[in-house]
Each structure stands twice: as structure tokens, then as C-alpha cells.
């Protein structure tokens, strides 16, 4: 859906309908954040599968993942809309980009907080999970090599 909204955004912004542009910018923002959130959930799943292998039962795991994957971005979008729906709009209205027809976030502060900071948090979480998984794999490999040396002797 992120790709579909991105590809149709410029065309739909050419209709000069403020409501349509706000909707397209909101959908683009939502699906972008949802992609980041699902990427973060994949790293959590990777951690559970490779580090916490045994005795990991999470009741209604898929439902909880779906609520987080689709709900957290919806909360961010709802918060932005509650603060000011005019944060979304047509990029051609800005003086710095007079020829761009694209519906997106118009306020730099909102962009840096709701997209860049969100991505940075997901990136930190993924990096932490990746390092944890690598350390776990390394420790398993080390233990296996020690056991094999013991049995060879």
C-alpha cells in the first residue's frame, strides 16, 4: 500500500483538492510508519526465535503483533491530526519547492519527530536485536566447539 499511495500521490495532488491531499499525505505517512513498525516487529520475532528459543509462549501473539504493527502508526497519525490537520498538505504550496506536486507533511518539526525520530528508534531497536542475536549465535558456536574438543580428547 505504501508503494500504491506513493505512486498515485503526485497524480492525485494535481486535482488541487485540499481534502484529497490531506488524505493522501496521511495515508502515505501511515503506511510508511507501518512499514517501519513491522520491520521492528520482525526483529523482535527474530530475537524470540533465536535467543529466547524455549519457553516462549505469548498468548495471542499474532493478534498482539497486528495491534502493534497497525495501531502504533495509527496513534501517531491521530496525534498529528488532532494537533493540526494542516500539517499535511501539498508540497507545491511551499516556497522552497514551487514546482513539486506532492502531498506530504508540511511542517519540518512534525516531519523530524514523526518520521525521522520514529525511524531512528526503530533503527536502534533493530540494531540492539541484531547485536543480541549475533552474540547468542557466537556463544552457541563457542560452546559447540568446546564440546567437540572435549569429545575429541
From TrEMBL:
Keywords: Membrane, Transmembrane, Transmembrane helix. It is a multi-pass membrane protein. One of its GO terms (cellular component) is plasma membrane. SUPFAM superfamilies: Family A G protein-coupled receptor-like (SSF81321). The chain crosses the membrane at residues 20-41, 61-83, 110-137. Residues 1-153 form the G-protein coupled receptors family 2 profile domain. GO terms for biological process: adenylate cyclase-activating G protein-coupled receptor signaling pathway; cell surface receptor signaling pathway. Its main location: membrane. Pfam families: 7tm_2. GO terms for molecular function: G protein-coupled receptor activity. It is found in: Membrane. This is AGRG4 protein. It comes from Climacteris rufus.
